[in-house]
From TrEMBL:
Pfam families, A to Z: URO-D
Protein name: Uroporphyrinogen decarboxylase (URO-D) domain-containing protein
Native source organism of the sequence: Christensenella tenuis
Xref: InterPro entries: Methanogen_methyltrans, UROD/MetE-like_sf, Uroporphyrinogen_deCOase
Domain Uroporphyrinogen decarboxylase (URO-D) per the UniProt entry, residue ranges: 190-407
PANTHER family for this protein: METHYLCOBAMIDE:COM METHYLTRANSFERASE MTBA
Coiled-coil annotated spans: none
Length: 414
């Protein structure tokens, strides 16, 4: 009987072979589950787990007792409510906070947390801008950080800077920051413990070393908002490009420092605004791709493996995706034509996806089996394919998840 250690290493190698474009012993199976573990176990609600994250152990154990992928998620997608309440995060809604149903997934609320006339400030000193502007606007309990400035502390300038720490608003914000930090440290500790538990009980490696975003999306998602960054491509063209460069520089350094040496090398890039429908090819080529390409390339050259979660469709972008080191990047597609993706990227980069969420929710097991067989027949020859869901899975039918696993485990064998 194979040991958990042996299973663990076999699963890691299976995925690594796919990345290197080697045909593995079986098609790797790496689905992205979000709320599905909670709905499947039917023991706790999403609100229960976000209020007490240790309850996630029951939910994920139940999932892995029945489904064992080649890489698996810990409960990191269920953020702790105590931290969000203590920090006063403004751009999130969750069960118990503007969401009445305790079993509905949380929601991201986009907003304008950087004004259009503030590009110059952000480019000049991104750290000061984040501390004095972005954080106070994004977290209601941290507004006092707007009064702290260390830039002129040399010689006796420190007196003015230090005096700000007597301000009641600053003190309140620092107390909230310390308490929020302790809450996050405890949560991170729990996640690390669960990853060890996954390894020892199930022989399942973790699915990520860290997370990343396209530099354009870092600005568009959390600073300017979708509508405003669309206009910025016309109204603040050069300023936007300069800030993208700033974001790219520190993102590369932070990602390499934060992800190197982890149990697995996979850095999940979540792409949002580069889809076919959002911007023209000219805009993609100018604003989106150059910084993302540099980010992917430098992270890959540092020995990490970008796993690029391409939300939406990239049917017109496939040729660009080859402009990275071969055999070192995974492209995980949602709606992109997989036949076209294999034709464009086969022999160059591993592709992943894209069992449709709609099919998993409303289809039949036979439909899922047929689609998975088509994916294997289309994408697996020659190596470089990983089976995955098209998007993060919430309310799928369990029998359809079973069909996806069964087909991959049997039909996907070499």
């Amino acid at each position: 009987m194979e040991t958990m250690h042996g299973l663990y290493n076999a699963r890691k190698k299976r995925v690594e072979d796919a990345v290197k474009l080697i045909e593995p012993d079986r098609i790797p199976l790496v689905p992205v589950f979000q709320a599905f573990p909670v709905y499947y176990a039917n023991k706790w609600t999403i609100q229960d787990i976000m209020e007490d994250y240790t309850k996630a152990t029951d939910v994920y154990d139940y999932l892995y007792d029945h489904f064992q992928p080649d890489l698996g998620w810990d409960p990191i997608l269920f953020y702790p409510i105590n931290y969000m309440e203590r920090s006063g995060i403004n751009w999130f809604r969750w069960p118990g906070n503007q969401i009445n149903d305790p079993n509905t997934m949380y929601q991201f609320i986009e907003g304008e947390y950087m004004k259009g006339d503030e590009y110059g400030e952000a480019v000049f000193d991104i750290t000061k801008f984040m501390m004095n502007k972005w954080i106070p606007r994004s977290f209601s309990k941290l507004s006092g950080l707007s009064k702290i400035d260390f830039r002129n502390t040399m010689w006796f300038g420190h007196m003015g800077a230090f005096a700000a720490f007597s301000d009641p608003e600053v003190i309140s914000s620092l107390e909230a920051l310390v308490e929020s930090g302790k809450m996050l440290a405890d949560w991170f500790g729990y996640l690390a413990e669960y990853q060890v538990h996954m390894k020892e009980k199930y022989g399942i490696p973790p699915i990520y070393a860290g997370f990343a975003y396209a530099p354009f999306d870092m600005i568009g998602d959390s600073m300017r908002g979708t509508v405003d960054i669309m206009m910025d491509m016309y109204d603040h063209e050069e300023e936007l490009l300069r800030l993208i460069d700033v974001m790219t520089d520190f993102a590369i350094k932070d990602t390499i420092a934060g992800c190197s040496g982890k149990e697995v090398p996979y850095v999940w890039y979540w792409l949002h605004k580069g889809v076919d429908e959002f911007m023209s090819d000219e805009q993609f080529r100018k604003f989106y791709w150059p910084s993302l390409r540099r980010y992917l390339t430098e992270v890959a050259e540092a020995g990490l493996t970008p796993m690029v979660y391409v939300e939406g469709a990239y049917n017109t972008r496939l040729e660009y995706l080859k402009e990275v080191p071969p055999g070192k990047v995974i492209y995980n597609f949602e709606y992109t034509d997989m036949e076209a993706a294999k034709k464009a990227l086969g022999g160059h980069s591993c592709i992943m996806g894209n069992v449709p969420a709609v099919m998993l929710t409303y289809g039949t097991p036979d439909e899922v089996k047929d689609y998975c067989k088509w994916l294997i027949d289309t994408c697996a020859p020659g190596g470089g394919y990983i089976m995955d869901t098209g998007t993060m899975v919430d309310d799928a039918k369990p029998e359809n998840i079973e069909a996806m696993f069964e087909t991959t485990l049997i039909y996907g064998k070499r």
